[in-house]
Amino acid sequence: MPDTGCAGEILQINLALLSPCTIFAANWKTMARKKANYPLIEGLEITTLAAEGKAMGRWNDVVVFVPLTVPGDVVDVQIRSKRRRFMEGFVVRYVKKSPLRAEAFCEHFGVCGGCKWQNLPYEEQLRFKTEQVRDQLTRIGKIALPQIAPCLGSEQTRFYRNKLEFTFADRRWLTREEVESGTDFDAAPALGFHIPNMFDKVLDIDKCWLQPDPSNDIRTETRRFCIENGYTFHNAREHRGLMRNMIVRTASTGEVMVIVVFGEDDRERIAALLDHLAANFPQITSLFYIVNTKFNDSVGDLDPVCYKGKDHIVEEMEGLRFKVGPKSFYQTNSAQAYELTRWRGSSRTSNRRTCFTTSTPGREPSPTSAPRAAPGWWAWSTSPKPSPTPRSIRN
Question: What span, in angstroms and rounded, lies between the C-alpha atoms of 44 and 345?
Fold first, then answer.
């Protein structure tokens, strides 16, 4: 093809050589990339709460869902999603704030997706939840209801969760205020929660009000240790990085379980971090680690290794069946190293059996404390038949 010297003419000649189907596909992709011109609604009055922490109002008989608002707010809303029966948007300006509004006590409220209604007093939250149940049963379910009793509140509105899962990321999420400030922020790593609807964006959490101590201290110390010692944080898109996830469980008895998920099998760095956590947090009852090199964060099909455990955990498992694990688990200088596997079956208290290797490195469990029931098994059960297929621990 001769060079005509005009990009437009060259494009025209090239399109002439293409098939009609190819031209249609190119035009369709161009239209799909075109940004929709959604309206800006001014003076929208928020009338009630909706599901998933959103509130709603009506504009021209169309329902508009707006997060971070409460009933009684009057706001200017930029629509970002439009459907046949409803629209969704975000607040551009608060024209008038509702008298029901409360001051959020968490510094991450509005960015973190964990707590949705901190801007509303707890008593009002209960009242609106009762109305939601009544509305869904009567309007949607078409059920005639008698008088509904009010929603029962919890005595504990802070630090009430017994389990949290945190995610490592090599770049922390910047808030809108930080972006609009014009400051050049460094690409600092993060250990916190996912931004809602974003699998690869993580908000770095300073203090979370959901789980009691020592959850916050364990998280912040883990982040500090990893940054100072050059540990790489996970990149979900490129699928690389040593530090991936961390799970903290706190029981009503005061016992604490920590599970650290690594993206690489770097035994030296794994041991250094776990030894540091065990030394600085003696209240940790059991300390586990998992090596997950998969593309997803699920660990239900992986075998966790107990790096630190209490003897009484094994001693109190009367009625369960235990399997002696392989001797290939990581030999460390720690006092004890256990391998945890969950097995199918039933016991007196649960339909899932938890199995520990009760041996310290290089030493088998004592036959006097654990009578042998079958080759390779240690039984505290009257039945000599071992459980079938092992099932990995589940969160």
Answer: 57
